[in-house]
Amino acid sequence: MKMNSNQMKNARAGTLESGDVLVRIEPADSLEIKLHSPVINQFGEAILRSVRDVLDLFGVTSGTITLEDQGALDCTIRARLTTAIRRSLEGEEGVSP
Length: 97
Hints:
Layout: E1 11-13, E2 21-26, E3 31-36, H1 40-58, E4 63-69, H2 74-90
Parallel strand pairs: 3-4
Antiparallel strand pairs: 1-2, 2-4
């Protein structure tokens, strides 16, 4: 299944707590990934690789994906992004517990 900006709604998942990541998705005509992280120099490429893997899995080809990382583990980043994508498809904006 491919997602495009016509199917997407604003959505978010996660928090700004230490060890977590806040993911925001907004409709857009092209795909843009914005990463803010205190560990971007060490892990930025690995984080972006994980983000691209999840986006590819869901067929996301457009939208602005913003990640505000607070040192989250890879599994947390993937889970938060997956939740945000699902919420974007369902039109449910919110923050995961």
